[in-house]
Amino acid sequence: MLALHGTGVSDGISVGKAFVLQRELPEVPEYTVARHQVDGEIARLAQAVEAARAQLLAIREHIPASAPREVASFLDAHLLILDDPMISQAPVDTIRRRRLNAEWALKIQRESLGAMFEKMEDPYLRNKKTDVVQVVDRILRNLMLRAHEDHERMSAGEIVVANDLTPADAVMLKHHRVRAFVTNLGGPISHTAILARSLGIPAIVSVHSATHYIRHGEELIVDGKRGVVIVGPDRRIVAEYRRLKTGIARLRRELDRLRTRLAVTRDGRRIRLFANIELPADVRAATHAGAEGIGLYRTEFLYMNRDGQPSEEEQFRAYVKVAKALTGKPVTIRTLDLGADKQVDGGRAAAAIAVNPALGLRAVRLCLHDTALFRPQLRAILRASAYGQVRLMIPMLSAQDELFRVLELIEETKRDLKRERVRFNPRIPIGGMIEVPAAAIAADMFAPYLDFFSIGTNDLIQYTLAIDRVDDAVNYLYDPLHPAVLRLIALTIKAGKAARIPVAMCGEMAGDPRYTRLLVGLGLSEFSMHPATLLAVKRIVRESSSKRLAQTANRILKRRDTRAVHALVDELNR
């Protein structure tokens, strides 16, 4: 028996046989071609790109009606990548300039793009490296005349083990009714993880060398909550996990009954639960989970996998689609949270990659630096506000001057729209994200000028503890319960209460049931999270007494020892 550990990205337990999906490409050949053969190599590359396009379109046409909408969205993203000059044109230039064979020229470009994405600080954009590599590998397979599909032998109910999964594989997962999957690569915000949650099956990613340790047909237990894969379990372990699986199924049935019920504590305190989304298609999952609105709409996805930035009209249509789908419920649209290291023009950066992009020109700083990028988005959000309860949220505020400049731009945009007789909500709520320690400490200085706060714990923790949360060497230090982090959260909540504005939290901490009781005790009134965790958080809220939680939370805030804080939170959750 062997236990492998990774990152659980979709809860649940599955017991079944392994199907190891081996897709490694053979060694890519490298050679030079004669001058008269250059055009032939370019033609071969073009044919391989078109073959990849035809394959993806064919897969898209055969998506099962019951498959999540995210499947089509991710396939569309791969089709867009095929059209990007960085994929279709850059290798052609290499073939002409260096007279290399098409395979090697494409491999060089894949490595160049991979290095560029690795330097990106934002984890959502950094994860797009996977999509680029998958698209390039599909083209390489066509060039090397290798088969793409290895799924025909799969039986229903097997557990897929792979290096990584493509959006096209999601169609296969649905067709074969796969029970779970395990991958060598991936992270909690990769498309693989998003698809797993959408399909509602247990999944573990970043299980390094899983495809080497697990053999075809071996019995596996996949524990998606703990991020553990047990290879070749004995009968006692299998029996124990089957009991746990029965308990999880029972809990899910109980949670389903909470969809239409309010999140109210036993002593009558009302908590509002919202959902985080990346794409308009995500609204369905949010609505299904009973979300009271959208607490964070990440708009960066409109800027990815494309040549140039989206137009005002394209952004307007996307925002209106969400607003109309949630009639009567708030939709909080976060303005662009990109940085100097994150491409918005098909990968052609205007400036060199920042040495430390997390501390550089990003989010509101970039928007104020490049108002030609910012103004179309402000216009689109304001126009969309005429079609629903749209709220605008500013990320990464650190100084009052930044806020004042954004508010001035918003007022200018309102005047322009009014002059053009374009409809908008003149009283659209404006909120600020508290994700920089300076903003949390000075939250009382921001509060008089804003309609709401939202605490972005992912960055707040990273900046407070001076660690890169995506760096394997130091991410063990990432601790939401560090006393300094909790004090900053408490300061923000206190400032919001004093100014009588609501305080929400939209970071990962908000959707983790381990912290729900503590956050309610600290006075948090609004939570925004991935739809998959909303009902579990609601159950805890409904089972809690806010007054009792407040007493324990005050004790926790006074603790200086992180271990003591963890012990008290464990006690709170028992």
Automatic annotation (TrEMBL):
Residue span, Phosphotransferase system enzyme I N-terminal domain: 5-127
Positions of the catalytic residues: H191, C506
Subcellular location: Cytoplasm
SUPFAM superfamilies reported in the protein's UniProt record: Enzyme I of the PEP:sugar phosphotransferase system HPr-binding (sub)domain, Phosphoenolpyruvate/pyruvate domain, Phosphohistidine domain
Coiled-coil region list: 241-268
Gene Ontology molecular function: any one: metal ion binding
PEP-utilising enzyme mobile domain location: 156-227
Main EC class the enzyme belongs to: transferase
Residues where phosphoenolpyruvate binds: R298, R334, N458, D459, R469
Needed cofactors: Mg(2+)
GO annotation terms (biological process): phosphoenolpyruvate-dependent sugar phosphotransferase system
Keywords, alphabetical: Coiled coil, Cytoplasm, Kinase, Magnesium, Metal-binding, Phosphotransferase system, Pyruvate, Sugar transport, Transferase, Transport
Catalysed transformations (reactions): L-histidyl-[protein] + phosphoenolpyruvate = N(pros)-phospho-L-histidyl-[protein] + pyruvate
EC number: 2.7.3.9
Domain PEP-utilising enzyme C-terminal: 253-544
GO CC terms of this entry: cytoplasm
Function: General (non sugar-specific) component of the phosphoenolpyruvate-dependent sugar phosphotransferase system (sugar PTS). This major carbohydrate active-transport system catalyzes the phosphorylation of incoming sugar substrates concomitantly with their translocation across the cell membrane. Enzyme I transfers the phosphoryl group from phosphoenolpyruvate (PEP) to the phosphoryl carrier protein (HPr).
Similarity section: Belongs to the PEP-utilizing enzyme family.
Protein name: Phosphoenolpyruvate-protein phosphotransferase
